[in-house]
Amino acid sequence: AIKLALQLNNKVFVPKVAIQLAMNVFGEEGSIAFMARLCEDYSGNKSLISNQVSLLDSYGKTDELFELYRKHKAFFNNKSLSIIMRHDFPAELSDDKDAYIRNVNDKSSKRHINIAIRCSAERGDTDRLKQILRFSCRGNNDISHWSSRLPENSELKRSVFSVDGNAKELTPAVSKNSSGIVLVFTGMHGNVWMPCSFLDYYFAALNLSAFYLRDYQRLLFLNGIASLGKDFLSTVNRLREIIEGTGIQRLFTFSASAGGFAAIRYGLELGAETALCFSPPFNLTQDFLEHDPRGKIVQRRLLSKVDNNVLDARSLIESASNSMAVHTYYGDGVVTDRRHSEYLLGVQSVTLHPLEGCKNHDSLSFTANRYNLLSLLGQHYNLSAA
């Protein structure tokens, strides 16, 4: 029935139905293989390829994602490109990413402009960013807004990080003379709503070194970070070695959205003083997530691939041998975020910060608009920007 509908050229609705049927009938590996076959049979169907891109991204199948790109990149639409551009490109394909950013102009689509802005910001390529922001009236003005509010260069205690153009699983921004280290656990899209290169201005002004972490396995860091270790414990041990190698004593964590659970779990394991979380998930158990409509693919993968005994942040905090201060910010008008944060209500080391009037999952932007973000970070980490 799916193939017949595709032959009838129904290019939008059918791929979405196909992907849902494939997941329900075949499971993870089977649905990937089934959708790959459809992409081969109907290689000119951009919507079908776009849905396969989303599926592979949700399943954390980076190698398969780039294999699809190699075969069908001529049929990658802007939605597909916006997903793959968030990834760490293989060396032989890095020129493609450079060209996509370089070729943006005032006639480019809104999505193309947004992707180029985001990639340039993540690279720390401020010159190119300024050029592209001239087109931001057709794109997303959030980046322009953030860039106008960053701490001044004169306030920085170290250099802001710059990267080679790719979003690595671990991006360091380290100075030996820092007052502490912050581990930044990014959300599903590999950022913290604002680009990590922008957030680094705030940490540099506070004289904090930072490690920006991404999990392309799409398991919320709970099975570790592939480039650092084969599982959670080996990843923790590798992070501990890296942290001890800096000679810096104080440790903190920071997170946005899906990175929130990791900020708690890794922070407790590594002896962090404080975890600062924006719109985090704190309970990933099956019973709790039945009432959470978000990310059903990721939910199923967590329950099947992660030890179910480590999916409850409250239990982890209360059973930990060390104490870590936890501050959680969330919109009081966002039911799912409020429910997760209020799950920790009554835990002695946890402070809830409901944001009155915030109706968006992006509680970091709301907080930055209402408060002085630099002062707020310094207050929670017990540091001064002076």
Proportion of residues in helical segments: 40-55%
Number of helices: 18
Category by helix and strand content: alpha/beta
Proportion of residues in extended strands? 5-15%
How far apart are the first and last residues' alpha carbons, in Å?
66 Å
- Average pLDDT works out at 86
The count of DSSP E runs of length 2 or more, i.e. the number of strands, is 7
- Low-confidence sequence ranges: none
**Could you spell the SSE succession in H and E letters?**
HHHHHHHHHEEHEHEHEHHHEHEHH
Largest sheet: 7 strands, mixed
Major β-sheet strand ordering: 1-3-2-4-5-6-7
Rg, Å, rounded: 21 Å
The shape is globular
Explain what the structure shows.
- By secondary structure, the chain is of the alpha/beta class.
- It is 48% helix and 10% strand.
- The protein contains 18 helices and 7 strands.
- The protein has a 7-stranded mixed sheet with strand order 1-3-2-4-5-6-7, with helices on both faces.
- α16 links the parallel β6 (325-331) and β7 (350-355).
- α2 packs across α3 (46-58).
- The radius of gyration is 21 Å and the shape is globular.
- The protein starts with a helix and ends in a 6-residue tail after the last helix.
- The model has no long low-confidence stretch (mean pLDDT 86).
